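Second attempt. The first submission of LuxR family transcriptional regulator had a stray character pasted in from the spreadsheet, which I only caught after the job came back as garbage. Lesson logged: always re-copy from the clean sequence file. Corrected sequence (224 aa) follows.
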Amino acid sequence: MSKSGTAKRRPIVQDRALRLYAALCEMINENGLQHFCFGVFPEDANRAFIGNMMLSNWPAEILNHYKRSDIAEGRAMLDILRDTVLPVTFTTVIVKKTDVDLYSADNLSHTIGLTLHDRLGRRYFLLLSAGHIALSRDRLASIVFDSLSALDDFSVDVSPQSQLSSREVECLKWTAAGKSSPEIAVICGLSAHTVTGHLKSALKKLDCVTRAHAVAKATRLHII
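This time the job returned cleanly.
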């Protein structure tokens, strides 16, 4: 218990996401918002909303509500966000009437939902809530930009860059320069078979089908 008698609420935080959690806390404070919920879009539309949540500063009673309920409200929000790239505003009408007071009391009666993509193309949702939200278009655009910047930093930990070997990166660089496997082999002092093996491994790690695709993706990720 704190000195004021209010129980401290422990956020759901993964160790490797501390930077993202701190960035989201700073962002909502700067914009007069109270709560956020961040997670990955479920691959299966029937999967539980709460099971895809990664970070949140939601009060414990709200988290418990979602764990107990059929999470229809959460799925409804994700279904709407899934079909748009624009920010979406939600109000308590999306919450069961019996839970309106619970949400309003904790400054969750109005929510802005964002769909975000990281550099690897993975899709996430970000819900930003407050008792009242009045953001200008410029302020909302700034929130989207700040969210993407924070997500880029978060994604560094799982970037293929840390998985590619120095030889794989070198072979990709020469491929980007238009060199064939035999030519790269001569330049690097390797056999053409070994070069082909390095490139196949790089394609697999980057989740690409062709060398051109791998070069384009590695360039976008600042690997080469």
